[in-house]
Amino acid sequence: MSNTSTHDERIAKMTFASVYPMYLAKVEKKGRTREELDRVITWLTGFDNKKLQELIEAKATFETFFQEASLHPNASLITGVICGYRVEDIENPLTRQVRYLDKLVDELAKGKKMEKILRA
After folding, report:
1. Which of 18, 24, 87, 90 is the most exposed place for a label (fewest CB within 10 A)?
2. For the chain, how many structural domains are there in total?
3. What is the number of helices (H) and of strands (E) in the chain?
4. How far is CA 59 from CA 27, 53, 62, 80, in A?
5. Do residues 33 and 27 lie in contact, with contact meaning Cβ atoms separated by under 8 Å?
6. Residue 120 belongs to a domain
7. Is residue 119 part of a domain?
8. Whole-number Å distance between alpha carbons of 96 and 119
9. Which helix (H) or strand (E) holds 86?
10. What is the SS3 assignment for 32?
């Protein structure tokens, strides 16, 4: 994937707190819960609910969010298309991590079983 550095930089500077309510609205509209969303985020990042809330309140950028995360060893199993791009082809590591999260939220909203989403 050939993202421009401007695009990558914009994603890095975006705050997780600004995107989280959109993730939540997307999954709740499809009948899923905040708990399920948080479980998916926790699986990917290693954060507990307390740390997740701290990052939201601190208005952490995605750059900070993923610097502090311990990405799940199976994160590389997240493949497919999100926002018109193949996740596995994204070259910038931070942009790829953000798209991993987008893909998991998308799978949750589409009604996939939690075991499949969490690559169990």
Report:
1. 18
2. 1
3. 7, 2
4. 21, 10, 9, 29
5. yes
6. no
7. no
8. 17
9. strand 85-86
10. coil
